[in-house]
User: Fold this.
Amino acid sequence: MNKIKHFAISVPFLFLMMVSLFGQVPLTRAQTIQGWSEPVNLSFSGVATNPLLVVDFRGVLHAIWIDGVDEAYKYSTSSDGVTWSAPKTVNFPFSIKDPPPVFISDPRGAIHVFWINKIEESLFYGQIIPSNFDKPSEWSVRSRLARGVSGFDVLLDKIGILHLAFARNVTQGGALPGIYYRQSSVGGASWSEPVTLYLSEYFRSIKPEDVYIRLASSSEVSPSNLYVAWDNRPQKRIFMAKSTDGGLSWSEAEQMKGPEDTGGFDSPFNITVAAAEDRVLLIWQVGQPGSPKCTVYSQWSTDAGVSWGEPTTVLGGRSECPLSIQTILNDGTYFAFRMNYAVNPTFIAWNGERWSEQQTQLQLPTFSNPLTFETILLGCRQDYIYNNRLLVIGCDQGTGGDVWFISRDLDPVENWFSPPSVWGVPESLVKEVDRKVSLLSAVADRNGNLHLFWARSSGDDTSADIRYARWDGREWTPPDAVITGLGSAPARLSAELGAFDRLLLAWEDGKSGDLLFSWANAEKASLSSEWSTPTVLPSLSASNSSPDVLSDASGRIVVAYAVPINEERGIYVVQSTDDGTLWSAPVRVFDAVSAQWEMVDQPKLALSRDGVLHLLFSRLTIRGDQGGGLYYTQSRDGGFTWSEPEVVSEAAILWSEILNFDDGTLHRIWQEYDGLVYANLDQVSHDGGRTWSKSLSVTGVNDRPTAVAIAWDPIGRMHFMQLIQQVDVSVIHQNKLTLQDWEWNGSTWELHSTGDFIVRGDGIEYDLTAGITSKGLLEASVAARYTDAQGEEINEILTFNRFLGNTSVTPEPFTAQLPTPPLFTDATEVAQVEPTVPVDLSVLYDDNVSISSTQRNLLGVLLIGGAMVVTVFLLLRGGKRK
Assistant:
């Protein structure tokens, strides 16, 4: 038996030994790595550093590097990237002690080179024919372009003009420290006189490594728009200058960002500009230059920099800080960039609307030297894009000290972007100055339209109206006031699609406490003349709240509302069978006085296909964060009698909704605060509300209340929208908001997509609503209230949309009909509702992106403390038994 055991152990061991031995057979090249070419050793010296690569107009590769023993540049060339010439020492015009030169390949046949002589601090220019690259005598040094240069950027535009921007750090020959521009339209044979773009004595003390300048040209025709962007780091400011005539004249330098945009704690730096026709993209970083973490921002202009969109984050917030940013592709449709880091760069692209995913598959792999079997880790890397192929030259940062070349095909840039299921760019539907916008309510009809209502009031709330706009999936109708002449702002607003494609509207008068109702045909809802004269709903009190309206297939209208305080407090229902002209007397669904509740509010109605009315309502307290609860009841006789209310939750309720689907499924969804965290929860019923599932977590928990909304359609698509305000201390006077879209998959909730947007202002408040059209379009609207830089109160409605996909399921006609209540005939029996499964509080503490570390620590302490108590109890109990 032992022999068998030893044999079983020995066989795998011997197999591994054989694999190890045979795997060390030397190869002529390093091993092939998925997606990458076989790495090629160019230097074979062990003392090679600072490699540079340029590809000429015929596609021939030219590589140079510094040899540490010869203290000279070595050169090698290849026509295919596989076979390279033997290294050769070349005495180039630039020295190994100078900063690395910049090569530009000209499609007309020349290679241009720019470099700074370290001793003289002068900027020189030269050129060479590619076939003579390794012949020092053939290099043509055309001119010294400037003295006292600490940094520069150069580009060759698509019509063959060379553009140069550089920073001077000395006062010499009448030139002062600052930023300058020159150009050559004759292939470098002669250069224009320097043009001063910006002067600052601070450039005298800026170190060369802190000089950051970027150039961009906009088009393939002359004259093109030119842009020069640069840092003034001692002043914590970034600037840009623009030329609209191909560089002949320039605008005044414009400060793009400064300390006032970051609160003075962080600095904007490393500004990069890219352009195509009238589209301009700015990228910059916010943090401390040289620090490991910063935030990368971008800003987009479609009118050549006259106006700019809102800043947006590029890498999703504070992250590892790039050392620099380089444009690697600009084809008029996409802008692609390389974010340079200490080890591997990141590639990312912009398509005019959003940023792509980061291209981590382009990061260099590790590989082995086939001669020494040592692992090669490439550093001092240079990337070169040619014919949609990424060419990389770098030096071994390990003990090898050789220069290596490796390459791979690039995925098409359009493939860098995730599927278009994310939110598009927000559209500003309404922007009011010193007029309040609130109470958003959205309703989808059966013809592919979404109807949006909101309240607008004067700053002192002495006058108000209810406004309306319709979205057909492509564009919004101009906003119109449909209910006018209101003496005060509505306090609650409820909109619903009723029978016969009628829009039903109920609201609370914010001053008198009355509840009012009106309706209009959906296709003519933008006309105020089509809306019925508002009627006051019957009530036993002057204090009313939260009307919720619905209609059955016959056109019968039901409104539930609350009397939240005072003697008649409770939940009530009124009905109308003549389009809201006459109303029944109020039926009290719940008596909050007899129940000894301090407050009651937030009734929510749903009507299932079997004619049953379902109602949620909330128990409130004077201190809203202490106690409360959510309750459910139903009526099977048209709203005359109601089942005994059952407890859904005993936490403080901030929001709730109840929904019914065509298959008979019910969802009751709510947001609650349990004294520790805020949670969004859901319960499901498949038997008409008799029994309910345990509570399901929709979004996980948050450390603060969030604006939420539910969007759904009769065929079962349901999306829970949550708006989260992000905190970024590096930026002031603006707010970053994240719109989260959680989708119901039939059994659980899943985060489907998120969208970030920026609101520039202080003191922001917001409302949220959403809807799904019959054509499968999901729309969300955000009403944001903030104070702008001029101190004016701005009220803005931003709209978002995305396509959910087509469906083969066609909604059935709306057929749910209420039984005639004893209000008109005899009563029907009220069904008994079985007790609900108790709320599962454990779902509140599931991991979620929004839960804070402090909350996790607190929960951990509580769990550990509980475990210790149980342990001590068991030990004591065991001791007693002994």
In short: The longest strand covers residues 749-759. The two ends are 46 Å apart (CA to CA). The mean pLDDT is 85. Residues 853-881 form the longest helix (29 residues).
